[in-house]
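Key result, reporting period 2: structure in, sequence out.
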């Protein structure tokens, strides 16, 4: 069956279904106590606002979640939105987290990619418009979502707390081209399938095909052969969209799956003797991603 990408939605996909940053640095424990570094189940978080939706940046280590938050923050701030950390997410005694909250803007705008990926890899931020909070965005260590060495291990307690909370969640699931090997990709699909069983009916899902600039689907800046990109994800990640099959007897005829698909690029990265410098990517990709997320925020 042909694939169309109207409104960025996955609409027609064949029955047989099968992840711009350099690799994110492994979470170095910033914002975590020594006990929490050893045992993720010791991590405690507080979601004080249980009303506004949470955009959960979900994916394995090194998929670009942190730099997506950096790029999206820069984009939103330039458009007049307020984006700032929620200090109550971690205990007031957590000096590292409170320090990173204080320095959030300087970290986000640092041209050193390593600085950003090191320091904001565990954070909850709010997005504010006209003085009102419209959503929250969670960026947490990828290994707490999908551990390559322990693909079937349960989520840490704090992730379960967020999953089980009453907030509507917008699960922003990262995939990328040529990620690791097939076994890892199949395990990741299993993880997403399990995650689907934990979602509430009012949750939504947006697949972000990050590092799109590393593929041959780019016709020009912001001009993507989305149908071909979707097919590529199907081939790389067998059956990844199956859990989101649209069961509605009417709408299933024009929208096969209840999820969205957005190609994305965070930017360009240049290696130099002092580290890795970051140059933000074209605004067109942020426009498309935020437009999709905003629709989910509004419900």
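The corresponding designed sequence is given below.
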């Amino acid at each position: 069956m042909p694939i169309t990408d109207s409104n960025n939605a996955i609409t027609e996909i064949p029955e047989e279904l099968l992840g711009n940053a350099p690799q994110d640095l492994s979470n170095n424990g910033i914002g975590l106590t020594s006990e929490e570094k050893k045992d993720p189940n010791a991590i405690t978080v507080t979601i004080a606002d249980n009303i506004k939706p949470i955009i959960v940046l979900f994916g394995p280590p090194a998929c670009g979640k942190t730099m997506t938050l950096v790029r999206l923050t820069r984009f939103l701030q330039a458009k007049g939105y307020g984006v700032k950390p929620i200090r109550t997410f971690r205990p007031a005694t957590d000096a590292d987290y409170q320090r990173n909250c204080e320095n959030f803007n300087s970290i986000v705008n640092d041209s050193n990619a390593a600085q950003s990926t090191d320091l904001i890899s565990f954070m909850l931020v709010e997005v504010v418009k006209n003085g009102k909070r419209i959503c929250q965005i969670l960026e947490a260590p990828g290994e707490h979502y999908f551990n390559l060495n322990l693909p079937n291990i349960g989520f840490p307690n704090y992730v379960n707390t967020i999953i089980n909370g009453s907030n509507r969640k917008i699960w922003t699931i990262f995939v990328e081209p040529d990620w690791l090997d097939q076994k890892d990709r199949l395990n990741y699909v299993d993880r997403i399938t399990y995650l689907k069983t934990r979602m509430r009916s009012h949750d939504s899902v947006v697949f972000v095909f990050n590092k799109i600039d590393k593929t041959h689907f780019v016709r020009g800046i912001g001009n993507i052969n989305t149908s071909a990109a979707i097919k590529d994800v199907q081939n790389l990640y067998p059956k990844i969209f199956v859990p989101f099959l649209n069961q509605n007897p009417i709408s299933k005829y024009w929208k096969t799956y209840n999820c969205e698909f957005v190609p994305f690029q965070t930017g360009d990265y240049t290696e130099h003797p002092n580290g890795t410098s970051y140059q933000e990517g074209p605004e067109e990709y942020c426009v498309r991603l935020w437009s999709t997320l905003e629709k989910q925020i509004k419900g």
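The radius of gyration is 18 Å. Residues 1-8, 11-28 have pLDDT under 50 and may be disordered. This case is discussed further under Risks and Mitigation.
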